[in-house]
Design brief:
Elements lengths: L1 E3 L12 E7 L2 E9 L5 E5 L1 H4 L9 H6 L8 E8 L8 E2 L5 E4 L4 E4 L11 E2 L11
Antiparallel strand pairs: 1-2, 2-3, 3-4, 4-5, 5-6, 5-7, 6-9, 7-8
């Protein structure tokens, strides 16, 4: 799937044209690859890891991406790879929002203080037993 970021991605403002590819051998992760430079990002749907994740797009973003239906929106979080998956993190503060109908995308920075740029990619359930 081809994606155009009319304003680029923060930190990569000059890059506009990307393609989303499946990560070979793992359909949960996607590669967001620039078509202009040898730059790519590993991404994941944040709802696959954090089912309680919430995002409310503002009217400006909905208009900018020409979103008509919620079903047409793909949300991805950029992953920062650590030495292991356990030390890898994902950016829940600034998800990538893509209108799959027209291929327009934007990295949307949430105002919420609930999310950070470095949430653990692998969730650890806390052991609450006293044993």
């Amino acid at each position: 799937m081809k994606v155009r970021f009319n304003k680029g991605i923060p930190g990569f403002d000059t890059l506009r044209e990307f393609e989303i590819k499946n990560l070979e051998g793992n359909d949960r992760f996607k590669i967001l690859q620039s078509e202009e430079k040898e730059i790519s990002f590993v991404t994941v749907n944040p709802f696959d890891i954090y089912s309680e994740y919430e995002i409310n797009l503002n009217d400006e973003t909905i208009k900018e991406l020409a979103i008509e239906n919620a079903e047409d929106v793909l949300i991805l979080s950029i992953i920062t790879l650590g030495k292991t998956l356990e030390t890898s993190t994902m950016n829940l503060k600034a998800p990538v929002v893509i209108n799959i109908k027209n291929g327009l995308g934007k990295q949307f920075i949430l105002k919420s203080e609930s999310y950070e740029t470095k949430h653990p990619l692998i969730r650890r359930e806390q052991n609450v037993s006293n044993q």
